[in-house]
Amino acid sequence: MVTSDVVYVVAGGALLLAIVLPELLSRWAVSSPMVLVGVGMLLGLTSLPDGLPLDPQANRAVIEHVTELVVIVALMGVGLAIDRPLLVRRISSWRPWGPTWRLLTIGMPLSIAAVTLLGWWWAGLPLAAALLLGGALAPTDPVLASDVQVAGPRTGEEHEVDEEDELRFTLTSEAGLNDGLAFPFVYLAILVAHEGVGLDLLPTWIGFYLVGKVLIGVAAGILVGRVLAYVAFRSESASLRVAERGESLLALAALVAAYGVGEVAQGYGFLAVFACAMTFRSAERSHDYHAAMHDVAERLERLLTLFVLLVLGIALTRGLLESLDLRGVAIGLGLIFVIRPLTGALALAAWRRAPYPGMTRGEKWAAAFFGVRGIGSLYYLAYAAGESDELGTDWLWSTVGFTIVASVLVHGVLATPVMARVGRSRDAAAKRQAEAEAEEQEERSSPGS
């Protein structure tokens, strides 16, 4: 049996599991990613032929491009799924995104700093490698966090009926934005690896990598989104108004075009894809076409993700964890159980009581905890490894791989029960709020008031 035949078998198995697993696991506290990684590990223990493309050092470019595709597909789906508007020129639309901004501007930098400090001071890594570890593990993953994210766009009559789940919205919007916003820190690691540590790096990094490329990426995404929305919904030519025909493959054209334009313009393509999806979603917001596009992106994301996880599982039992040591285990588990929960709680001030309909304390702690790590971390590591050999060591690959698998296991097991409990708590809080408002109204209307 040749290697290419095995790849087809693995791909076919992943596709089959992608079709049947969601329904099979819907009643259990087990996620599809958990099963795929487990199946992959079992396959890795069998007598598979030699020569499979599992070594991250030898197959870095393949890993980079495959994970890159998975992330941009997921970002398109996430952007289309969010119902809450965000308009650049309307500041009032920014306020309902408050928890998201706090997680991005407070929680994520603190998380990067903590992991970097552990990697440099405790694990003894060079500063560039420690920075990369912090940047690669910083973003929560839009790919593996479907169990704690919004289900999809509400269109038609549903659009104005149900209020959006605050916890799911926060986790979804954070995952959509922080993949691109973690990139400046990955670039900082690359700059330090090439030029060393020096204050002369800061003006270039802040001006171009931290600010300039972010703005360019967002602008490119908005431009592509507006052009495609005009064509799909308002073009004078009936043949171009694809929304009327329900041609949902425009989702794929949009994500590829937005990513390409963003990268060619020297911006962050991840941000361009998310901004494109959000911009397109803002046009004819209640149109059913958004749900059709989201369905295409979601299905493709599921297929690609499960294939990658199956291969990751095989790699785990075929040498990926050979360089893992106590330092890597401690950093990975520390990020999942300590660093992310504490930095997220600090960003959201989770110990404070929030007035309904704001996030309850339980929702804040849940949002702080569910920082799922996944495919994006592999992409950042593969990208940086292509820029500097110092940033592609076996230890980094082992540590990132272990952290992803640990996150898949921990968050996958806890997602269903925790989200159910938080939902019950929120319903109870809403009931108490309604009763209090009813009593207050009754007191005001009584004759003696």
TL;DR?
Residues 17-420 form the Cation/H+ exchanger transmembrane domain. The protein has 449 residues and is an all-alpha fold. The protein is 71% helix and 0% strand.
Could you explain the architecture of this structure?
The chain has 449 residues and is mainly α. The protein has a single domain (32-430), classed as Up-down Bundle (Na+/H+ antiporter like fold), CATH 1.20.1530.20. Helix content is 71%, strand content 0%. It contains 16 helices and no strands. Helix 4 (98-122) packs antiparallel against helix 5 and helix 4 (98-122) packs antiparallel against helix 13 (326-348). The protein is globular.
Structural descriptors:
449 residues, mainly alpha, Na+/H+ antiporter like fold
How many DSSP E strands?
A: 0
Q: Main beta sheet: strand number and arrangement?
A: none
Q: Briefly note the CATH topology name.
A: Na+/H+ antiporter like fold
Please indicate the count of domains: 1
Alpha plus pi helix count = 16
Going by CATH, the architecture would be Up-down Bundle
Arithmetic mean of pLDDT: 84
Strand content: under 5%
Radius of gyration, whole Å: 23 Å
CATH class: Mainly Alpha
Order of helices and strands: HHHHHHHHHHHHHHHH
Distance between the termini: 86 Å
Shape: globular
In the predicted model, the low-confidence regions spanning at least 5 consecutive residues are 158-162
Main structural class: mainly alpha
Instruction: Provide the helix percentage.
Output: over 70%
